[in-house]
Structures are given as C-alpha cells and as structure tokens.
C-alpha cells in the first residue's frame, strides 16, 4: 500500500550574528512549511547558529574571533532551543530534521537532530569526520549516530555533506532500510561545481538505497558574504554551491531543484516507489551477497572516556613515575 508524505526542504540564510535570530528563522520556516501541508521539514547543515563559512576562507591565525563567536552562539542538547523546536513539531504534527553546531563543554560538533511529530527528539548524531577545513572547528562523531529512526513519516536516516562520499556510512543506513534519507549541506560554498557534485551524490544514493532523498542547502546574501571576508577573490568561494532537492528512489527530481536564493522546496513522496525500486534491485536484500561482502558497524562506539573506574576502586593515572 502506498503512503504519501509531503516533504519541505528549506533553503534560507541563517543570521551570522545571533543564535536567537537564526532560531527565529527556523521557527518561522516550520510554521510556513507546516501551513503549506508539509509532514517533513529539513534544514541545512549546522544551520543553527550558522555554518562556519569563515573556516573555509580565513587562515587559522585569523579564525580566533569568529570561532569563539561560534562557541558562544552554539547549541547545547537538550536546551531551550531544542525545546522550542520540539514544541513546534508537536503543535503542527510535523517531523523536523535540524542541523546545529552542538557545544559539549569545550568542543563543538556538527550535529543532526531528528524530531518526531510528537516533539520527541529521536536522534542526535554527530558528523563522523569533519571535512578538510572543518577539522579546525568540530570534533569527530561516533558510530552510534549511524542510525535509522522510525518516525511518523517513515524510516528516516541522515548524513551531513561529504559523509555521502563515505560508502560504508551510507551502507550502514541502507542496511537499516531507510525509506527517506535526509541530507544537509552548507550551500553558498566552493562554486557551481559543488552543486553539481551534490546532485550526483543525492541521485546516486537514492538509486542505490532505493529510498527518497530530501536535501537542504543553505544560502548567504551578498551582505553576509561581505561580513565573512571583504576580499573579492575569496568571496568567490562563498557563492553558488546550492542544490536543495527532493529525489525519488528512481533517481529523479520530484520537483526542479532550488539552486539560488531563498525558498522552501515542496515535494510529495509516494513511498510505494520504494518497493517498486527494490523489486528490481535491493542492495541490502536479494541483490546483496553478504557471504562475499559485508560491513562491520560498531554501534557501541561512543566518545572515549577520559577516566575509568568506579567508587573507591578508581585510581587516577599517574602523571609521572
């Protein structure tokens, strides 16, 4: 039997000065998308408070001030910010996937939050390996976040940006039979080639996994680009690269993608197409050869502890002999 889900992929600009102002944009977008009948609403990568665009164009010696600002404006989980999103989800009965910069004491992480339609935070996962310049900003995630969750709209999995170039990370979600894959990218980065690469990756994952893909990328205004760097040469690296799109299990766009400007992309997902695609090729079922090829997914891998032991038995590690 077919089930229909209306998805909304949000491509808007964050506020580069304030978490509170970006959160206001998030809540307004949820209201707007829900008012237009959306069941699933997806925001860009680390949208709250903003993606660290500065790290792509500024040398390390100039990143101290904007990096500290990101610390000050980052999200803790749980917090009043996550509570407000949860309440809005429950009010409208919508599923929301939100990208945030998560602060955990002295470290920042690229985190993806999946809220169910009753407001429950079903999943907080961290990007397993920050990409290139991002390693100056975020810590590494863990294997426990590679999880598909059951939501009101179906089985949802999520990856961020170039995690889609890690075939084993994608396969870990595929083995859990995701029906809707959520992807998040920064947008306004690298140039037109970035958008082209995103489209290839999204269409390929949809075909290989046999699921729908809903991808949201961010957007920067000219004024925001000027605020990151006044150098016109470096500003070229903060333009284009947007590919907000909704893809069917057959690798087709549900609606034309959004590649510039702000807006919300809507598409109707007929989940019956998942079975239609997998009838031909189920890469984790009748088309798989697990006796030849298999994946070892350590789901218990969590951030390493800095101390061990309990109670009176605990002994600190000596600093010297």
UniProtKB/TrEMBL annotation:
<dbReference type="GO" id="GO:0018762">
    <property type="term" value="F:aliphatic nitrilase activity"/>
</dbReference>
<dbReference type="InterPro" id="IPR023919">
    <property type="entry name" value="Nitrilase"/>
</dbReference>
<feature type="compositionally biased region" description="Polar residues">
    <location>
        <begin position="302"/>
        <end position="313"/>
    </location>
</feature>
<dbReference type="Pfam" id="PF00795">
    <property type="entry name" value="CN_hydrolase"/>
</dbReference>
<keyword id="KW-0378">Hydrolase</keyword>
<dbReference type="InterPro" id="IPR036526">
    <property type="entry name" value="C-N_Hydrolase_sf"/>
</dbReference>
<dbReference type="InterPro" id="IPR003010">
    <property type="entry name" value="C-N_Hydrolase"/>
</dbReference>
<comment type="similarity">
    <text>Belongs to the carbon-nitrogen hydrolase superfamily. Nitrilase family.</text>
</comment>
<dbReference type="InterPro" id="IPR044149">
    <property type="entry name" value="Nitrilases_CHs"/>
</dbReference>
<protein>
    <submittedName>
        <fullName>Aliphatic nitrilase</fullName>
        <ecNumber>3.5.5.7</ecNumber>
    </submittedName>
</protein>
<feature type="domain" description="CN hydrolase">
    <location>
        <begin position="5"/>
        <end position="271"/>
    </location>
</feature>
<feature type="region of interest" description="Disordered">
    <location>
        <begin position="302"/>
        <end position="321"/>
    </location>
</feature>
<dbReference type="InterPro" id="IPR000132">
    <property type="entry name" value="Nitrilase/CN_hydratase_CS"/>
</dbReference>
């Amino acid at each position: 039997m077919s089930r229909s889900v209306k998805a909304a992929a949000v491509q808007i600009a964050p506020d580069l000065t304030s978490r509170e102002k970006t959160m206001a944009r998030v809540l307004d977008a949820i209201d707007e998308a829900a008012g237009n009948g959306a069941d699933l609403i997806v925001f860009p990568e680390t949208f709250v408070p903003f993606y660290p665009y500065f790290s792509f164009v500024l040398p390390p010696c100039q990143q101290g001030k904007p990096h500290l600002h990101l610390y000050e404006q980052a999200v803790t989980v749980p917090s009043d910010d996550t509570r407000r999103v949860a309440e809005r989800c429950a009010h409208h009965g919508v599923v929301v996937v939100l990208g945030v910069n998560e602060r955990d004491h002295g470290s920042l992480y690229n985190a993806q939050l999946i809220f169910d339609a009753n407001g429950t935070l079903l999943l907080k996962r961290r990007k397993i390996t920050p990409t290139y310049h991002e390693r100056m900003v975020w810590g590494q995630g863990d294997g426990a976040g590679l999880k598909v969750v059951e939501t009101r709209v179906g089985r949802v999995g999520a990856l961020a940006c170039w995690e889609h170039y890690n075939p084993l990370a994608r396969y870990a979600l595929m083995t859990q039979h995701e029906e809707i894959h959520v992807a998040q990218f920064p947008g306004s980065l690298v140039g037109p080639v970035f958008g082209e690469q995103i489209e290839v990756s999204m269409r390929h994952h949809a075909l290989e996994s046999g699921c729908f893909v809903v991808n949201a990328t961010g957007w920067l205004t000219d004024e925001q680009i000027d605020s990151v760097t006044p150098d016109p040469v470096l500003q070229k690296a903060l333009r284009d690269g947007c590919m907000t799109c909704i893809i069917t299990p057959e690798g087709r766009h549900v609606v034309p993608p959004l590649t510039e400007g702000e807006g919300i992309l809507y598409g109707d997902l007929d989940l019956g197409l998942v079975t239609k695609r997998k009838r031909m090729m189920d890469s984790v079922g009748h088309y798989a050869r697990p006796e030849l090829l298999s994946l070892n997914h350590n789901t218990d891998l969590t951030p390493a502890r800095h101390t061990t032991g309990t109670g009176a038995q605990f002994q600190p590690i000596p600093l010297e002999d």
